[in-house]
Backbone:
């Protein structure tokens, strides 16, 4: 299957600072990328959809000014958590979809801890 | 709003036994996916089901899709400890073809030796 790389895998930051997470499709062009958040022992919740060169579409209840998404190229999307607070601590997972692949492919996830 | 429900939420079973996990979804979709998640890890793709009546098998796991009933099943045959994990089904959101997945609630499986 196609490969999606997410970086970093773990990050600890201080409350009030910003953190950037990268999601890269390594061997295909990702026309669309998705960002999910997963709290402990819960399911994955879709946060936003990003298309290359367009503004991201956020799901209801997700603060777009807090979770900045940029999809500047067909192989890279970034999620920036701005002014992070402890309640933003979570597991963030990206997925990427390309033409003709039949499914989306998931990154390894990023464990964010805000202290 | 598309809703995806799984049952059971928790499953503890003895090695060697069979069991089925159910995934029900609320609106029309022809694409359903099953994933495995180990603690602290991301998702591992198990099955991609793309049409009504689709059945796929890999090892001790078999998945099926009934789009008319809006139901998918994941059947476990002769469970082994290594199958202990959380299993998620996911359905494409109504804007089909976008791979925008709505995930089920998850089933935490524990296989006891």
Residues:
């Amino acid at each position: 299957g196609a490969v999606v790389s997410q970086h970093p895998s773990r990050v600890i930051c201080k409350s009030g600072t910003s953190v950037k997470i990268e999601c890269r499709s390594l061997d295909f062009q990702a026309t669309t990328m998705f960002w999910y958040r997963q709290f402990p022992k819960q399911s994955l919740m879709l946060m936003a959809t990003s298309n290359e060169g367009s503004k991201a579409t956020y799901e209801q209840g997700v603060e777009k000014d807090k979770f900045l998404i940029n999809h500047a190229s067909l192989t890279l999307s970034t999620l920036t958590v701005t002014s992070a607070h402890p309640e933003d601590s979570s597991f963030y997972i990206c997925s990427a979809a390309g033409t003709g692949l039949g499914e989306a492919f998931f990154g390894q996830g990023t464990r964010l801890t805000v202290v | 709003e598309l809703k995806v429900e799984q049952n059971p939420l928790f499953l503890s079973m003895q090695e060697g036994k069979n069991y089925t996990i159910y995934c029900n979804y609320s609106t029309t979709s022809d694409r359903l996916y099953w994933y495995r998640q180990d603690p602290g890890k991301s998702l591992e793709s198990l099955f991609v089901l793309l049409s009504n009546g689709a059945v796929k098998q890999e090892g001790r796991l078999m998945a099926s899709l009934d789009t008319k009933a809006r139901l998918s099943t994941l059947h476990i045959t002769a469970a082994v400890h290594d199958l202990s994990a959380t299993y998620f089904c996911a359905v494409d959101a109504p804007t089909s073809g976008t791979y925008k997945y709505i995930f089920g609630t998850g089933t935490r499986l524990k296989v006891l030796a």
